[in-house]
Amino acid sequence: MTDQNNDRVFIFDTTLRDGEQCPGASMTLEEKLEVADALDALGVDIMEAGFPIASQGDFESVSEIARRVKNASVAGLSRAAPKDIDRCAEAVKHARIPRIHTFISTSPVHMQYKLQMAPERVLELIASSVARARNHVASVEWSAEDGTRTEHDFLCRCVETAINAGATTINIPDTVGYTTPDEYRALFEMVRSRVPNADKAIFSVHCHNDLGMAVANSIAGVMGGARQIECTINGIGERAGNAALEEIVMALKTRADVLPYKNNIDTTLLMRTSKRVSAVTSFPVQYNKSIVGRNAFAHESGIHQDGMLKNAHTYEIMTPESVGVSKTSLVMGKHSGRHAFKEKLKELGYDLGDNGLEVAFTRFKDLADRKKVVYDEDIVALVDDEIANAHERIQVIALSVMAGTKQPQSAALTLQIDGQQKTYQATGNGPVDAIFNAIRALAPHEAKLELFQVHAVTEGTDAQAEVSVRLSDGDVVSAGKGADPDTLVASARAYVSALNKVFARRARGTVEAVAAL
Ligand SMILES: CC(=O)SCCNC(=O)CCNC(=O)[C@H](O)C(C)(C)COP(=O)(O)OP(=O)(O)OC[C@H]1O[C@@H](n2cnc3c(N)ncnc32)[C@H](O)[C@@H]1OP(=O)(O)O
Ligand SMILES: CC(C)C(=O)C(=O)O
């Protein structure tokens, strides 16, 4: 029937069935329809839409999905029980290609303790359930639950029975995530070589991730002759989850040199589909998750960023565009280097020259040491602050403040004024007042404080503060800004920045007055 040596691998998505089985991931009908539309657009060959006997809601969603889906085959799950199979048939009957997926456990532990059935009874149920399903639909999948812990001779008898009864797909699941790649590959090779009618069905892998090997095992199964892969978006599923569709598909695409298997998935929709599933299930995607994690195409360390700027192949084995991510992101942080910082400044519209770059880079590293995430807004605030204050007469050199419930608050401030450093300790009605009193003592002036305003550049308790100060000197108002993760340092910078403008205006006025004489 099917050539097991061909290179087409069918993608069977079970996000809506096994994915939904993980605690907390259940979806409403509307949410399931949304996911079904996304899976159909993605190009899955078969989508398992639910377990129709489980509830009226599950029946209705499988049935609605069957009517709605345009391209993929729609499958429903059923135990080896007539009522399950008939209910499933009723639910999938409007699908373009309806499939009944029936299963029963075949391992000694499951047969003895869970089913409490003798192996011969299990064989009978395989024959009757598959035959019943075949009376309803042409596409019937049979699964040997706990297949990887099943005794080999018995597994072969079960598979032969299922195919004889009309199964078109044979799934050997690693239900408890126990197998290893070599073992799973050998299992498929063994079954396919020993079962006389094996060539009449497509073999399928279905792996769980209890030991973190679900994707590797799935691919090994394909190397052993399986041509259907059962998987879920974001790897959601029972316990540690199922094999992740996006990882399997990108492994096949990226390593086509050693994994020459074709499928129908539009990989550029992977990110969008992952986000949709994450949103409807409220299951967050781990940051460092392969392919669809938010760090999958993000680089923070300077050496990697430098490499990426020179040639993306240095640190990326697939392009972000190929999975629907718009671009690689170079995240600025304490591990970043000058090349990436310079590039970031260029992107933000700054050209500071070598000296300016060096000063801004030093301040950036200092900020990154203190702040968990450095956002573009932080860099803009920092560079603007540097540009505004770098060539000023007065600069803030050091500040330490005593604040708290005990009065009065005090500030010890060191300013550099015309190249000379001076320190003064002042008290005040609060730490900001103490700082401003210290500035007044170090750089005496008549200007009056008109406005003092603080706002956070980004979110979080480690956000940079951006402080605005306005000083009025006669009719003239001078405004200054200061940015720093420490609000008090930002306040000192802002006041000094405004004061520099007051002095600059006065100096200009004097020059103009002298010139007018
Ligand atoms: C490996 C997998 O992912 S298998 C799929 C697991 N998914 C689910 O279970 C989700 C949907 N399940 C449900 O809604 C319910 O379990 C139902 C509706 C299927 C059954 O509910 P209940 O009738 O209340 O039975 P319950 O779940 O308590 O026990 C399961 C029964 O099915 C039997 N059973 C389990 N698997 C099979 C099977 N493949 N074929 C036949 N009988 C089976 C069990 O032995 C047990 O039988 P018992 O009642 O005679 O002891
Ligand atoms: C029903 C089967 C395919 C299953 O989900 C499993 O064995 O994990």
Automatic annotation (TrEMBL):
InterPro entries (UniProt xref): 2-IPM_HCS-like, 2-isopropylmalate_synth_dimer, AIPM/Hcit_synth_CS, Aldolase_TIM, LeuA/HCS_post-cat, LeuA_allosteric_dom_sf, LeuA_bact_synth, PYR_CT
Q: Identify the stretch(es) annotated as Regulatory domain.
A: 395-517
- Domain of life assignment: Bacteria
Write down the SUPFAM superfamilies for this protein, in alphabetical order: 2-isopropylmalate synthase LeuA, allosteric (dimerisation) domain, Aldolase
Instruction: Tell me which Pfam families the record gives.
Output: HCS_D2, HMGL-like, LeuA_dimer
Query: What's its EC?
Result: 2.3.3.13
Q: Which GO terms describe its cellular component?
A: cytosol
Cited function: Catalyzes the condensation of the acetyl group of acetyl-CoA with 3-methyl-2-oxobutanoate (2-ketoisovalerate) to form 3-carboxy-3-hydroxy-4-methylpentanoate (2-isopropylmalate).
Provide the family line: Belongs to the alpha-IPM synthase/homocitrate synthase family. LeuA type 1 subfamily.
Q: How does it assemble?
A: Homodimer.
NCBIfam families documented for this protein: leuA_bact, PRK00915.1-3, PRK00915.1-4
Spell out the protein name for this chain: 2-isopropylmalate synthase
Instruction: Write down the species.
Output: Rhodoblastus sphagnicola
User: What gene is behind this protein?
Assistant: leuA
